[in-house]
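Input/output pair, single chain:
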Amino acid sequence: MWLKELQIAIIEKNTNEIDRLVECMPMYEKMEDMQSAASLLKEANKLMMTLKEETAESMSKIKKTKDFLDATHSKNSSLFDSKI
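Output:
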């Protein structure tokens, strides 16, 4: 059941569910189940790393856009005062 739930969470890119499942990972006795779990955990890790890179890239683009907008407005304007 756990393996199937992890597969679904990976397919759905549901990071909260992946985190929950990793926290309550069962102990398997069969080598086949252990190998399946290891394979799925590798996939989950790749997904998390990809999402992390995408988030970093998005944040960088937002920062560049904010810097551009700040540079095009007068310093007296407080339109974009938020810190990133």
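The two ends are 41 Å apart (CA to CA). Residues 2-60 form one domain.
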